[in-house]
């Protein structure tokens, strides 16, 4: 059966909603006791599975035999999203470049699947992103192995290395480089990169830097600086004063380089002191303050994307990649929507939350399909109530019967070697983890001086 535009809109709306109210299986949205009425009525389960398993962006038979693009199956969507990001108005003049990961643990993606040690999701698709300090994505490059520069038309410049060429290519998207600045971490930064950004684009930059990339800049050793105490900083300028290299002692020695500023004017940072068990004032160079203020754009994007990420577990690698592009579009749309809010008070209002924004998108996509029926709630009413009902049902699926939970017999506290999520904290949206559990109910529960979930679970209505 041919896929219509209306069906595709309904499918996307259901898929986005599944990222807001997560359940163990797709079947649970159509079957009792976790059935979601407006989803089940919008599209049959068999049709949803059929579309998801056969979703293609190009005809595989048209792929040339000498194809060199590993992302060719999703290239039309990537190029479309990238074009829209490039055309966004850049109201900000501070940008950051970093890596973003979309989780994927399958084995069928070849060089597309990457590993990054410090990320929440260590295995997945890697993308280099240019964002504003608020998290809006203006340009990105999806890593596709050794052919990344070839398929992305990146012109390699001598002496910059792979990371430096990525930064220089992304910075070409900045619309007003001579009044803008960019931050990046030590994976990308080098002295030649900072100089070429300044000379060729007129763009100032800051980045943490590895000592083996400082062109033998005469800086004192880490050991000598640590002896002088916390807050000590030294600066050396290179290339006729165009680039400043700074060493600063915090919990450890931090190395930065940049053409944006140096160590002055110094500010004061509040840090925890173990000996006095209180926060103390530590001198902080200006370059460190500006880096900390403007580097977190990609982290903001990652946080918003993973809050309500579309479920993307699949054998085919194209499905997680498509969900990655949809999430990117939704986060960008939400941040643009929030930036256009009339006042800060409205922005802080719950109506402007990422969840409610996605629910409005779902409502718009499904409005063409679901009509008001006699005796049934409207889509808006169903959306407002179903979120809490489905999550409540999902949380209570493994709860012991009330007769067992409240009988007051043989409920003993036992401690396990592995820490787990507290049942009560999870039910009420708290971030509680514990080693303790009830031996009879087999449920992990906090036993703390300020929060006794074990007692509340066995005495209160849950």
Automatic annotation (TrEMBL):
Q: Which domain of life is it from?
A: Eukaryota
Enumerate the InterPro entries for this protein: PGBD (IPR029526)
What the entry lists under Pfam families is as follows: DDE_Tnp_1_7
- All copies of the PiggyBac transposable element-derived protein domain together span 2-334
- Spell out the protein name for this chain: PiggyBac transposable element-derived protein 3
Q: Which organism is it from?
A: Frankliniella fusca
């Amino acid at each position: 059966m041919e896929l219509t535009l209306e069906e595709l809109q309904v499918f996307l709306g259901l898929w986005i909603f599944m990222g807001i109210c997560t359940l163990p299986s797709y079947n649970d949205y159509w079957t009792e006791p976790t059935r979601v009425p407006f989803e089940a009525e919008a599209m049959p389960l068999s049709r949803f599975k059929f579309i998801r398993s056969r979703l293609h962006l190009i005809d595989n038979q048209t792929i040339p035999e000498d194809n060199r693009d590993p992302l060719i199956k999703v290239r039309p969507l990537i190029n479309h999203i990238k074009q829209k990001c490039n055309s966004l108005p850049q109201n900000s003049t501070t940008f950051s470049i970093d890596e973003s990961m979309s989780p994927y643990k399958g084995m069928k993606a070849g060089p597309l699947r990457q590993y990054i040690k410090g990320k929440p999701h260590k295995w997945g698709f890697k993308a280099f992103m240019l964002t504003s300090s608020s998290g809006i994505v203006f340009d990105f490059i999806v890593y596709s192995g050794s052919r990344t520069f070839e398929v992305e038309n990146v012109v390699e410049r001598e002496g910059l290395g792979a990371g430096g060429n990525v930064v220089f290519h992304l910075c070409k998207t900045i619309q007003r480089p001579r009044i803008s600045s960019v931050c990046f971490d030590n994976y990308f930064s080098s002295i030649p990169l900072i100089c070429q950004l300044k000379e060729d684009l007129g763009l100032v930059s800051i980045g943490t830097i590895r000592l083996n990339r400082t062109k033998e800049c005469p800086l004192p050793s880490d050991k000598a600086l640590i002896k002088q105490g916390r807050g000590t900083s030294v600066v050396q300028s290179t290339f006729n004063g165009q680039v400043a290299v700074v060493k600063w002692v915090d919990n450890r020695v931090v190395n930065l380089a940049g053409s944006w500023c140096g160590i002055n004017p110094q500010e004061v940072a509040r840090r925890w002191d173990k000996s006095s068990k209180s926060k103390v004032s530590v001198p902080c160079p200006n370059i460190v303050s500006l880096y900390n203020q403007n580097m977190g754009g990609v982290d903001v994007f990652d946080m918003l994307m993973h809050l309500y990420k579309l479920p993307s577990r699949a054998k085919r690698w194209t499905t997680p990649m498509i969900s990655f592009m949809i999430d990117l579009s939704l986060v960008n749309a939400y941040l643009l929507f929030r930036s256009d809010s009339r006042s800060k008070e409205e922005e802080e209002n719950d109506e402007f939350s990422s969840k409610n924004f996605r629910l409005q998108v779902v409502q718009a996509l499904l409005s063409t399909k679901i009509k008001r029926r006699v005796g049934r709630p409207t889509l808006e009413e169903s959306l407002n109530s179903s979120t809490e009902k489905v999550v409540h049902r999902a949380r209570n699926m493994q709860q012991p019967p009330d007769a067992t939970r409240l009988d007051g017999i043989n409920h003993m506290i036992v401690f396990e070697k592995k820490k787990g999520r507290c049942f009560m904290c999870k039910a009420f949206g708290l971030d509680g983890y514990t080693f303790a559990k009830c031996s009879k109910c087999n449920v992990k529960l906090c036993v703390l001086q300020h929060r006794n979930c074990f007692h509340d679970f066995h005495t209160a209505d849950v």
